[in-house]
Amino acid sequence: DAGITQSPRHKVTETGTPVTLRCHQTENHRYMYWYRQDPGHGLRLIHYSYGVKDTDKGEVSDGYSVSRSKTEDFLLTLESATSSQTSVYFCAISEGTGRRELFFGEGSRLTVL
Amino acid sequence: KQEVTQIPAALSVPEGENLVLNCSFTDSAIYNLQWFRQDPGKGLTSLLLIQSSQREQTSGRLNASLDKSSGRSTLYIAASQPGDSATYLCALPSGPSQAGTALIFGKGTTLSVSS
């Protein structure tokens, strides 16, 4: 299994509070992604990173920010959480070259009350 | 914009049956296509990846085919088992060749295999 660790795995928070989810990889892959998964919508890309300090927006980036200060860590921040951000968040990694196979973490379940 | 469709959304079969899951996409200029499995409450596990130059890939009882001209991929599962029960998703890059292009996912087919 690809070495991807997400933390926390479960979090309950209140509307308006800041939340940071962490993705840590041990594969030294260049590309890292944050997806959210919701019933009826499937998996949708929030943000991705193509290198240290290099990030770009995905399909559903509003209300989210990301940072990548080290190759192994990719942080997703909800500056002021809303109930619509209740979801399961998945981190994924890819070498970005060759086969470009995508590997996923176990997910972080976030509930915003 | 690439769109990915998986039909049916759910499928129930008895153990031992051979089955086919379908994945359709709108833009045939793809780099590759990946099939994943997701168990309830878990992350996605990569099953097979087919490059655009390939017609099929096999892993054990799984065989994935790719027909770019018709915008279709199929995942064939032979001799299904209760342990195959899961949601199966297909995904492909949103762009044809850009390195690290994020994947667009179908909504999946939830398979239930009864013993």
Note down, in words, how this protein is organized.
The complex is a heterodimer of chains A (113) and B (115). By secondary structure, chain A is an all-beta fold. Chain A is 0% helix and 58% strand. In chain A, strands 2, 4, 5, 6, 9, 10 and 11 form a 7-stranded mixed beta sheet that branches. Chain A has a 4-stranded antiparallel beta sheet with strand order 1-3-8-7, with no helix packed on it. Chain A starts with a strand and ends with a strand. Chain B is mostly beta strands. Helix content of chain B is 0%, strand content 54%. In chain B, strands 2, 4, 5, 9, 10 and 11 form a 6-stranded mixed beta sheet that branches. A 5-stranded antiparallel beta sheet of chain B has the order 1-3-8-7-6, with no helix packed on it. In chain B, a hairpin with a 4-residue loop joins strand 7 and strand 8. The radius of gyration of chain B is 14 Å and the shape is globular. Chain B starts with a strand and ends with a strand. The interface between A and B is medium-sized, with 25 and 25 residues.
Record keyword descriptors for this entry.
heterodimer, A: 113 residues, mainly beta, 11 strands, B: 115 residues
Short note summarizing the structure:
The complex is a heterodimer of chains A (113) and B (115). Chain A is mostly beta strands and 113 residues long.
Order of helices and strands of chain B: EEEEEEEEEEE
Structural class of chain B: mainly beta
Distance between the termini of chain B: 41 Å
Instruction: Report how far apart the termini of chain A are.
Output: 34 Å
Computed over alpha carbons, the radius of gyration of chain A is 13 Å
Number of helices of chain B: 0
The structure class of chain A reads mainly beta
Helix-residue proportion of chain A: under 10%
| Count of individual beta strands of chain A | 11
Mean pLDDT score of chain B, rounded?
92
